[in-house]
Amino acid sequence: MVTPVVGYATKRPKLIADKVEVVRILEGDIRSLLPAESIHVSEIVVAKTYKLQAPHFIIDNEMVWGATAMMLNEFRMVLNEVMEGED
């Protein structure tokens, strides 16, 4: 089970990765998620066997796909709605 949490801070927080759960913390610019062009599609191999076309984001030079990409896309859509309402 994953519970995404979004927060706001006036200064950059110190992030500490759980060595068991996290290999690397990726950092990106939230504005880079907003355009439709931020969603890429590439062929990936899952479980060393299955090839599939996977939508993904590139963040901090890493491909972010699967459930994380789905959550980021939902966040992207909410942000775009909020920003449209500010015009």
Word description of this protein:
A hairpin with a 3-residue loop joins β1 and β2. The chain is 23% helix and 24% strand. Strands 1-2-3 form a three-stranded antiparallel sheet. The chain has 87 residues and is α+β, with helices and mostly antiparallel strands. The longest helix has 20 residues, at 66-85.
Task: Indicate the topology.
Blueprint: E1 40-46, E2 50-59, E3 62-65, H1 66-85
Antiparallel strand pairs: 1-2, 2-3
Distance between the termini: 36 Å
The rounded Rg comes to: 15 Å
Helix and strand run? EEEH
- Read across the widest sheet, the strand sequence of neighbours is 1-2-3
Oligomer: single chain
> Could you tell me the mean pLDDT?
92
Brief characterization of the structure:
With 87 residues, the protein is of the alpha+beta class. The chain is 23% helix and 24% strand.
